[in-house]
Amino acid sequence: MAITDWPEGERPREKLMQQGVESLSDAELLAIFLRVGVAGKSAVDLARDLLIEFGSLNGIFSANLAEINQIHGMGESKYCQLQAIFEMSRRALEEEIRSKDVLSSPRQVRDYLSLKLGNMTREVFMVVFVDAQNRVLASEILFEGTLTQTSVYPREVAKRALYHNAASVIFAHNHPSGIAQPSRADEQLTLALKEALALLDMRVLDHFIVAGNATFSFSEQGLI
């Protein structure tokens, strides 16, 4: 049955207008994006197929073009639209955290880091540079690959922090394994970076580990 044949209160667009966007399920949100289904399937059915295939919205956004093309009714155009929506979400959240005290909006910082790093299949190390008023100046991925004290160089981190005239920093790296727990190497690396930056009178506010939608905060666990 086509969505136009559904009772009006059950159609995703009408439901959004009447009850608000928060009332929609993941499949219904995707259906509004897809607009139309394929022969024998409504847009909601196609959205459910995508969620089953990739496991979550995050999984859909992280899928590559070849994987998206395997779903009947999808293709290059839809892939590009999905990537554009995801990037707009990241940029909007980055704009939001730049305008606020990061210490007063930890949830938004977590959300931004999850969007930025959660889908990456390789391990990366990111630094968020913060000014004396705890506002974000910039964020950069500085290192890629297996992250240890020998592959993340305190001198390079310090150089970029000085370039941005940062008063403090937030570290973040991802665990593609999906486990948001620090290793002993993670703890040693954090301590080494903290000690190096202390010599420049710069604070380390936190170090986040991102694994998909999950995050681990060193600060919250008393490790900084």
How would you characterize the overall build of this protein?
The longest helix is centred in the middle third of the chain and has 23 residues, at about 75-100. The protein has helices at about 10-20, 25-35, 45-55, 55-60, 65-70, 75-100, 105-115, 155-165, 185-200, and strands at about 125-130, 135-145, 170-175, 205-210, 215. With about 220 residues, the protein is an alpha+beta fold. Helix 2 (about 25-35) crosses helix 3 (about 45-55). The protein is elongated. Strands 2-1-3-4-5 form a 5-stranded mixed sheet, sandwiched between helices. Strand 3 (about 170-175), helix 9 (about 185-200) and strand 4 form a beta-alpha-beta unit. It starts with 11 loop residues before the first helix and ends in a 7-residue tail after the last strand.
The number of distinct β-strands equals 5
Spatial sequence of strands, sheet with the most strands: 2-1-3-4-5
Helix and strand string, N-terminal first? HHHHHHHEEHEHEE
| Integer-rounded radius of gyration | 21 Å
Into which percentage range does the β-strand content fall? Answer: 15-25%
The major β-sheet equals: 5 strands, mixed
Give the rounded overall mean pLDDT: 87
> Helical content, roughly?
40-55%
Shape: elongated
Could you name the ranges where pLDDT drops below 50 across 5 or more consecutive residues? none
By secondary-structure content and strand pairing, the structural class works out as alpha+beta
